[in-house]
Amino acid sequence: MKRDFLSIADWLGKELLQILELSKKMKANPKKFAKSLEGKSVALIFEKQSLRTHVTFEIGIKQLGAHTVYLSNADISLGKRESIYDVAKNLERWVDAIVIRTFAHKNVTDFAKHTSSCIVNALTDFEHPCQAVGDFLTIQEHLGSFKGKKFAWVGDGNNVCHSLMLFAAKVGMNFTAVTPARLLPDANIVNLAKEIATSTGARIELSSNPSEGVCDADVIYTDVWVSMGQEADREEKIKAFSGFQINTELMKNAKPTAVFMHCLPAHRGEEVTDEVMGSPQSIVFDEAENRLHTQKAIIYTLLKGQNREKLDTGSGRRKLAHSRRTTRNDSRTARKR
Question: Sheet harboring 41-46: ordered strands across?
Answer without folding.
Answer: 67-72, 41-46, 97-101, 118-121
